[in-house]
Write a structure and sequence with these properties.
single chain; 414 residues; alpha/beta; five-stranded mixed β-sheet; 17 helices; elongated
Length: 414
């Protein structure tokens, strides 16, 4: 039995060693209870969509060979194995096909695919090869930059290798026949709307992913890989500017502020500002726009050495110091020091009209990010009010003329 190398062989570790991953580890901020469980190793691991699809494939092939199973053991990269339950099996003797389903168990990781039913339909072919495709609920690649051929199912190289491996392990029972495998996810199209797939150009469903076969809850490497992937797609589409936002709401406001930039320029970086900026610089992008609200931007302005210390006290001391630099009266500085949150401190600043405070905060963010980028990026920092208005920026935005330049420099949408 043969398998085209281009279809399944590839690097078993898509997330190559990244010199910047330590920076991302330092930036990640988790809820205190999750952080404590992670430190103690108490978070439950799970299995990737790739491992789940492989288990369903093995179950379906065994059923087609007349040996249906309630559980199967599949081979993972690096010599490990996983035993996974089969949810249901259906054999269609009239068509010579068998389908099995397995349930994606992501452990304690907050992934939208946790609990999803992943199916594999297998049949024999006369070509003597293994042919793998995606069916309903598995996305199709429509943009470059993902390392997958445009038009192909979004099944990454490691899941491809795992599926082929499980088929090859049963080769002695196949009498030289090839096997066709179609992976499907009944609710995949609905689930994909909650992922980055649409912006990455993966349309119609989720991706079948995994580099080790195992899900490590709240993995920094997974978040970092998603950021790199988004930037790779933007670059492959011809963009030289990335708009790095702290979440969905700030992204919506950034889109309104820079309407000429296409979807692929917008990347939700979460906590990983320094990592994202460094990746932009490493990938030779021209410009990065950092957009968010006062809370996250304050953490960026403080720098890693302070932000990894939990609690609001450090933030309030930092903000009080900025107010002092802006010439605020002592009573206002003391009021800021006693504020509950960065947003509360911002309200105090606005109420007392502390001139230059928000611009200075943006400049502090700029300085931190400029250091991460090693001076290799044209940087812009934008702070939004919670109603979407621009509260401050550094360097100062030049209004419509700035956006006009963006329109001239970026490729047309679509």
């Amino acid at each position: 039995m043969t398998t085209p190398a281009a279809d399944v062989r590839g690097n078993n570790d898509d997330d190559n060693d990244d010199d910047d991953i330590e920076l991302a580890e330092q930036e990640q901020e988790l809820p205190a209870e999750i952080e404590e469980k992670k430190r103690k190793g108490a978070l439950r691991t799970g299995y990737t969509t790739g491992t789940t699809a492989t288990a369903a494939t093995r179950g379906a092939l065994l059923a087609l060979l007349g040996r249906p199973a309630e559980k199967v053991t599949v081979t993972l990269p690096k010599g490990r194995t996983a035993t996974i339950a089969i949810a249901w099996t259906k054999v269609e003797e009239s068509t010579g096909r068998a389908t099995c389903a397995a349930i994606k168990d992501g452990g304690d990781d907050p992934d939208v695919t946790h609990g999803a039913e992943i199916c594999s339909t297998v049949s024999f072919n006369d070509s003597g090869t293994i042919r793998i495709d995606g069916g309903r609920g598995v996305g199709r690649v429509t943009k470059p930059g993902l390392g997958l051929e445009i038009g192909r199912a979004a099944i990454n190289s490691t899941p491809m290798w795992m599926i082929c491996k499980t088929v090859e392990e049963l080769a002695a029972d196949l009498s030289g026949r090839g096997v066709d495998v179609v992976i499907s996810v009944p609710k995949g199209e609905e689930l994909a709307k909650k992922t980055d797939n649409p912006r990455l150009g993966i349309m119609g469903g989720i991706s079948i992913l995994g580099t080790t076969g195992i899900v490590l809850p709240y993995s920094t490497a997974s978040f970092a890989a998603a950021i790199r992937q988004s930037l790779d797609v933007a670059i492959a589409m011809g963009a030289d500017t990335a708009v790095l936002t702290t979440g969905g709401r700030s992204e919506d406001f950034a889109r309104a502020l820079f309407p000429a930039l296409p979807d692929h320029c917008f990347v939700q970086m979460g906590d990983f500002a320094g990592y994202s900026v460094r990746q932009c610089a490493d990938k030779k992008m021209r410009r990065a726009i950092i957009a968010g609200f006062i809370g996250k931007l304050t953490k960026m302005a403080m720098g890693i050495k302070q932000t990894h210390v939990r609690g609001s006290h450090v933030s309030m001391e930092f903000m009080a110091g900025l107010a002092e630099q802006c010439g605020a009266p002592k009573e206002v500085i003391e009021e800021i020091r006693k504020a509950n949150t960065a947003r509360h401190a911002g309200e105090i600043v606005a109420r007392h009209g502390v001139a230059g405070f928000f611009d200075l905060l943006c400049k502090k963010v700029f300085d931190q990010m400029h250091e991460h980028a090693k001076g290799q990026l044209d940087l812009q920092v934008v702070m939004f009010e919670f109603d979407g208005r621009v509260l401050a920026s550094y360097p100062p935005l030049s209004g419509s003329s700035d956006q006009k330049r963006e329109k001239e420099k970026e490729p047309a949408r679509g």
